[in-house]
Write a structure and sequence with these properties.
The protein has helices spanning 18-26, 46-54, 73-85, 102-136, 148-156, 161-168, 172-178; strands at 4-10, 31-36, 60-63, 89-92, 97-98. The chain has two domains: 4-118, 3-Layer(aba) Sandwich (Rossmann fold), CATH 3.40.50.1390; 148-178, no CATH class. By secondary structure, it is α/β, with parallel strands linked by helices.
């Protein structure tokens, strides 16, 4: 008999994992992996990778909500395939999904499609809001992090891209983008 292994995720550092962790522990999870990362992709989610490495045959990976695990059908399918290959089940507490049953596997695919749809709708609403704000002159985008004039002054003083990057606390690639500076 395997163990119940939890995975919890929030999108930003300011959000709390506490409620998810409490729910996972109350469900019987013996180990809970936690991270604060965007869920729009599985790339860079080190705790998810660790949880997938940790689970063994007969274990069940558990999350509180499906969107804590994946926001696209593609990512969900990849994760589910990895679990299936290791003979690990999957359980989602709030959506009552359990891939150890045929009904649970069907419901998982349906819920995954809705999660992807919801993400797409959210992205469209955000783009519409930004477009409206631009028309009103309210949205100006992210402020520039590089002062091109300062870069030009340092370059005129004979500084190379590496030295300028160190002084300004930015990457050399940023220096090259601001100026048509040849590589050191």
């Amino acid at each position: 008999m395997g163990v119940l292994v939890g995975y919890s995720r929030v999108s930003s550092v300011g959000q709390s994992l506490e409620v998810q962790v409490e729910q996972l522990l109350a469900a019987g999870c013996e180990e809970v992996f936690q991270e604060k990362r965007s869920g729009t992709t599985v790339q860079g989610r080190t705790e998810l990778e660790a949880a997938l490495r940790f689970v063994r045959k007969g274990d069940v990976l558990c999350v509180t909500r499906l969107d804590r695990l994946a926001r696209s059908m593609t990512d969900l399918a990849v994760i589910m395939e990895a679990l299936k290959a290791k003979q690990v089940g999957f359980r989602c507490l709030q959506q009552a999904l359990d891939t150890t049953t045929s009904e649970g596997r069907l419901l998982l695919h349906i819920m995954g499609a809705f999660a992807e749809f919801e993400t797409s709708i959210r992205r469209e609403r955000q783009a519409e809001g930004i477009a409206k704000a631009k028309v009103k002159g309210v949205y100006k985008g992210r402020p520039r992090s590089i002062d091109a004039l300062q870069v030009a002054e340092l370059r005129a003083q004979g500084e190379g891209a590496s030295a300028i990057a160190r002084k300004l606390g930015i990457s050399r690639a940023s220096i090259y983008r601001v100026t048509a500076m040849p590589i050191d």
